[in-house]
């Protein structure tokens, strides 16, 4: 988590953030603050929400800037962020309203998977306390959704290693010896916010309405491609990979390095 915090502190102690903190704490945001982020931006949003609602914003932005609270959190393709789940101290259920959205195929025949949503789980990291929404591509190109409730602590660990298997097996069978290279090459496509927008538009509107998901386009969000560095990892809490074949282990290490590489 150290690398994620380092990246967040660099942003929240920059000269440009002072205006943002003052705006968010002003009467113009009296109706509440909703955060949205993708990739490293999602991690930063999660850290900001966790600190804000614990009264610990000064640890991110310094003592001189005003504090505020976060009412809603929506993220896309966020990697696991911490060794224990970031939670919402302002609610008795510890959950952040909103969804953590990720793409993951349930089929070995069709559908893409955003491996970044698993990535740093390789080092034992987990996601925050909030509901997770899995986008599942179907053979006709449309999408189904599966929602995992915040109240279930297992939600902080999805997608799991087993959830990745249909996609990884398909990639392995299709590409053979170039499996690692080709799968890494596809991460950019599967991880971009534009593809999340496209996926959500291909979910039936009535399905999202039943899930009480407030859908809007997020095309103006800046996509972060550099996923973070200097992350301090704990090998004692890393997942057991003794039965993972060498190619898949190489792939996971490469993806994990994108979000959790020490330098």
Radius of gyration: 18 Å
Quickly give the structural class. alpha/beta
Which word captures the global form?
A: globular
Enumerate the spans where pLDDT stays under 50 for 5 or more consecutive residues. 215-244
Order of helices and strands: HHEHHEEEEHHHHH
Gap between N and C termini: 14 Å
The average pLDDT value, as a whole number, equals: 81
Question: Into which percentage range does the β-strand content fall?
Answer: 5-15%
Give the total of beta strands.
5
Query: How much helix, percentage-wise, in residues?
Result: 25-40%
Strand order across the biggest sheet? Answer: 1-2-3-4-5
Largest beta-sheet details: 5 strands, mixed
With helices defined by DSSP (H or I, 4 residues minimum), what is the helix count?
Answer: 9
Describe the protein.
Helices cover 34% and strands 11% of the residues. It has nine helices and five strands; from the N terminus they run ααβααββββααααα. A five-stranded mixed β-sheet has the order 1-2-3-4-5, with helices on both faces. Strand 4 and strand 5 form a beta hairpin. Helix 1 crosses helix 3, helix 5 crosses helix 6 and helix 6 packs parallel to helix 9. The longest helix has 15 residues. About 11% of the residues have low confidence.
């Amino acid at each position: 988590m150290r690398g994620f915090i380092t990246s967040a502190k660099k942003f929240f102690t920059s000269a440009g953030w002072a205006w943002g903190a003052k705006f968010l704490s002003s009467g113009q945001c009296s109706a509440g603050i909703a955060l949205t982020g993708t990739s490293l931006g999602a991690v930063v949003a999660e850290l900001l929400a966790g600190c804000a609602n614990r009264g610990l914003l000064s640890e991110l932005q310094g003592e001189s800037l005003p504090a505020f609270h976060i009412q809603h959190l929506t993220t896309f393709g966020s990697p696991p962020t911490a060794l224990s789940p970031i939670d919402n101290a302002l609610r008795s259920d510890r959950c952040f309203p909103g969804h953590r959205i990720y793409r993951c195929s349930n089929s070995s025949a069709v559908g893409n998977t955003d491996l970044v949503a698993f990535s740093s789980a390789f080092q034992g990291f987990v996601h925050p306390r909030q509901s997770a929404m899995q986008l599942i591509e179907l053979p006709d190109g449309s999408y189904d959704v599966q929602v995992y409730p915040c109240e279930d602590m297992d939600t902080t660990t999805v997608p799991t290693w087993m959830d990745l298997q249909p996609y990884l097996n398909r990639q392995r069978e299709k590409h053979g010896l170039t499996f690692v290279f080709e799968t890494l090459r596809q991460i950019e496509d599967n991880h971009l916010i534009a593809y999340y927008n496209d996926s959500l538009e291909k979910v039936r509107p009535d399905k999202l309405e039943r899930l009480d998901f407030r859908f809007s386009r997020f095309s103006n969000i800046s996509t972060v491609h550099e996923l973070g560095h200097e992350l301090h990892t704990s090998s004692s809490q890393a997942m057991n990979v003794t039965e993972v074949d060498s190619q898949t282990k190489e792939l996971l290490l490469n993806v994990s390095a994108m979000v959790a590489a020490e330098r």
